[in-house]
Design goal:
25 helices, mainly alpha, 2 domains, Methane Monooxygenase Hydroxylase, Chain G, domain 1
Length: 759
């Protein structure tokens, strides 16, 4: 047997391991978001419960491995070399696709991804076979198209039903319990818990354990025949247990419900979706083993058709346990799983804050339409009914600043469990991701978590995720098709190139994810103490002063020596600085003012001005660098020596003033602050002189039109930078002086003094 097939099996094993990691990173949102969003327990406890569910589900994984072997295509139509190429194309596509979704924090369906990757790769291999063999037949003989159509119908059905049912049940639940649910829950909590646990147990049996060795087929058959009485006994027992825990042992049964639901969803995920990650490797490994037996007996594996893949599969327990361990490790240590979870929690959370998505014309239209309908309903609703509803939906502060309370978390888990188990019993191809996400979005809408200041962003976020789901099928099919054709055409060289491409994409996506998370953390930086605020402002002022001089200097050098890379580097630094302070202005200032414990209006006012002046400086730096780069990138005539010297005069004045202020700030003595005011006056006078000089050069024909326009723009932006720099330094001086007047404690003073000296 050609060693390439052993290499393919090893590569499939490596890709399956990566797929487990990126798959868990994506699907962890299904069973973690309710627990994390409601802060039902410490993160380590939530992950421990989820890990237990994952391991149980993995060890007793259901017999869904046939999906990867014969669910989408007919294996008896493919030869051994073709089937191995098909599986390799599927795994390469799956790793790339899921990793890209994880990198940008978007949940997607691993089931849909796998099915359409299998479909695309099998079409590719079938087409190549048809093109290269005259007796190959038609494409329809190779593909099981009914499976793909069933998945597509399941997508649309599950999205609509999950959102609608989640909204209705959450609305009714809030009317019953309100946000201040403590008193009413003492009387109705046991019944509520009984209903929830019954749904979760029903879900665990029919979705998590159906077809596994943990529950025998005979037992499942008996339960299906006596489902009514089984559910009655389950509900009675669960209600009594909840009443016992609540009233006798004083346990918060909502936490029990949420953690139980988390474990059940995790178990179902591992038990049913494990095929999405290792099913293709298992099929490839079995194919290799079958071909090896044929080769030992002297058979021709190149002409071996893989009809044995139609036989029932018995998963190796060692592989399943190994997969479970990898999934648990990914659950605990994958940063990208946090990103996907944060996306859903962010869209479902109560109140305002940093929005993950922007608005769109469609989301704005939907909000306007909803407001119109809401106003129409209010006109015909009796006043007592409106008062009752408003009273039930009056918000209260949740414990530990949770994104939503335990009532909504229990609704999310219970309704998701019910819908998934119902769909499974009806043999509908539901996606766990679709159902759990849309239930969470429906419940957040019904719970009035989407206010006037956040609705357009939240709705656009949901639309973005849904569009990503619908695009997943098309992208998975197309990419798998192209990769499959490339592997069939290129052979061993194509295999090597695609493996290198996977490594490169994973490396680049990791860097992109790290950079994106770093920026999001900057967005969410909120200061609640004086020392944090003062230290941050000192660092920001230092950064603006340093970067202004560095960027200005690089622009001058680049324009003088016509060094395109130097100007491009300056433009990148200016854009990064601009984005930083634009985000601070948008996301940091108001939350910081709301969270500050002190009552020093002068200090807070100077803080607002510091951010505003810094933003204006960076905006001008951005304009300077972009205009300069466009000029030099278009290969226009170089600046004359006189033009460069004029601009260098501005740079020298800024440098002297900034250095003088640094020294004053280090000593804490601002008696020489007149130097900063003189800087503004000198450059304002210089601005007029430089404009006159350039006008003379234009009239004398010593300067081209484009260089004249750019020069005048640079001088004007330099004037703005000077003005805003003077304002910035003045505000920083006042900020430090007002802080001193506010009378912070001795330790804070010492730390601030040390932070200032470090500048």
């Amino acid at each position: 047997m050609d060693p390439i097939y052993l290499i393919i099996v090893i590569v499939l094993l490596g890709l399956a391991t990566l797929d487990l990691i990126v798959g868990v990173s994506n699907d962890a949102v299904n069973f973690l978001n309710s627990s994390i969003g409601s802060r039902v327990a410490p993160l380590w406890m939530i992950l421990t419960v989820a890990s237990l569910g994952v391991m149980i589900g993995a060890m007793f994984s259901s017999g869904m491995m046939e999906v990867a072997r014969s669910g989408v295509f007919y294996p008896e139509k493919f030869t051994f070399p073709a089937i191995m190429t098909l599986f390799l194309a599927v795994m390469i596509t799956d790793v790339i696709l899921l990793d890209l979704f994880n990198t940008f924090g978007l949940p997607t369906s691993t089931t849909v991804s796998l099915v359409f990757e299998l479909l695309g790769a099998s079409v590719a291999v079938a087409l190549f076979t048809i093109w290269t063999q005259d007796t190959a037949g038609e494409l329809g003989n190779y593909i099981n198209s009914g499976k793909a159509l069933a998945i597509i119908s399941g997508i649309f059905i599950s999205i609509a039903i999950a959102f609608l049912v989640g909204s209705i049940i959450m609305y009714i639940s809030r009317l019953i319990f309100s946000f201040n649910y403590g008193k009413r829950f003492r009387y109705l909590g046991a019944i509520w818990g009984g209903i929830a646990l019954t749904a979760i147990i029903y879900f665990a049996i029919f979705k998590g354990l159906k077809g596994s060795v943990l529950v025998t087929p005979a037992t499942l058959s008996y339960l299906e025949e006596h489902m009514g009485i089984a559910l009655f006994y389950t509900f009675t027992g669960a209600t009594l247990l909840m009443a016992l825990l609540q009233h006798l042992f004083r346990v918060n049964i909502l936490k029990v419900i949420v953690l139980s639901g988390t474990a059940a969803l995790a178990m179902a995920f591992a038990g049913n979706d494990l095929v999405n990650f290792i099913g293709v490797f298992m099929a490839g490994y079995d194919s290799f083993r079958i071909a090896g037996e044929v080769a030992v007996n002297g058979g021709n594996i190149e002409a071996l058709y893989m009809d044995k893949l139609n036989e029932p599969v018995v998963a190796n327990i060692a592989w399943l346990i190994g997969a479970g361990v990898i999934m648990i490790l990914a659950l605990w240590f994958s940063k990208k799983s946090r990103s996907v979870t944060e996306t859903e929690v962010n869209l479902a959370r109560k109140g305002e804050g940093v929005e993950r998505f922007s608005s769109s014309p469609l989301s704005r239209s939907m909000v306007r339409g909803s407001l119109t309908i809401s106003k129409s309903i209010e006109k015909v609703t009796p006043a007592p009914v409106k008062r009752f509803i408003d009273r039930q939906f009056a918000p209260v502060e949740t414990e530990n600043e949770a994104s939503f309370d335990l009532i909504r978390a229990s609704v999310n888990l219970t309704i998701a469990a019910l819908l998934i188990s119902l769909g499974t019993s009806l043999k509908l191809p539901l996606s766990t991701t679709f159902v759990t996400f849309m239930v969470a979005m429906g419940s957040s809408l019904a719970d009035r978590a989407w206010g006037r200041d956040s609705a357009v962003y939240r709705i656009n976020g949901v639309l973005t995720v849904v569009a990503g789901w619908l695009m997943t099928a098309l992208i998975a099919f197309t990419v798998a098709l192209l990769i499959g054709l490339f592997l069939m055409w290129g052979g061993k060289i194509a295999i090597a190139l695609m493996i290198l491409l996977v490594v490169f994409i994973l490396y680049k996506s990791g860097r992109i994810h790290t950079k994106r998370k770093s920026r999001e953390q900057q967005h969410q930086q909120v200061f609640s103490s004086e020392i944090q605020l003062v230290t941050s402002c000192n660092e920001d002022v230092r950064l603006v002063l340093d970067k202004t001089l560095t960027i200005f200097e690089n622009v001058l050098h680049g324009m003088r020596d016509e060094e395109r890379k130097t100007v491009k580097k300056a433009m990148a630094e200016a854009n990064e600085l601009y984005e930083k302070f634009k985000d601070k202005r948008t996301y940091e200032v108001v939350p910081t003012l709301e969270s500050m414990e002190m009552n020093a209006l002068d200090l807070e006012q100077e803080y607002v001005q510091l951010v505003d002046y810094s933003y204006e400086i960076t905006k001008s730096l951005k304009a300077v660098t972009e205009a300069s780069f466009r000029y030099i990138d278009n290969n226009h005539a170089a600046f004359s020596k006189e033009q460069i010297e004029d601009l260098e005069m501005i740079y020298k004045i800024l440098t002297e003033a900034f250095n003088s202020y640094r020294e004053m700030d280090r000593k804490g003595d601002y008696s020489q602050f007149a130097i900063v005011n003189n800087m503004r006056d000198v450059i304002f006078d210089l601005y007029q002189k430089l404009n006159k000089r350039q006008i003379k050069r234009v009239k004398a024909g010593a300067s081209t039109t484009r260089s004249s326009i750019l020069f005048l723009n640079l001088v004007n932006e330099a004037k703005i930078i000077t003005l805003q720099s003077g304002n910035l330094l003045k505000s920083h001086r006042n900020f430090k002086e007002n802080y001193a007047k506010a009378g912070p404690d001795v330790n804070a003073k010492t730390l601030i003094r040390q932070a200032t000296l470090n500048l």
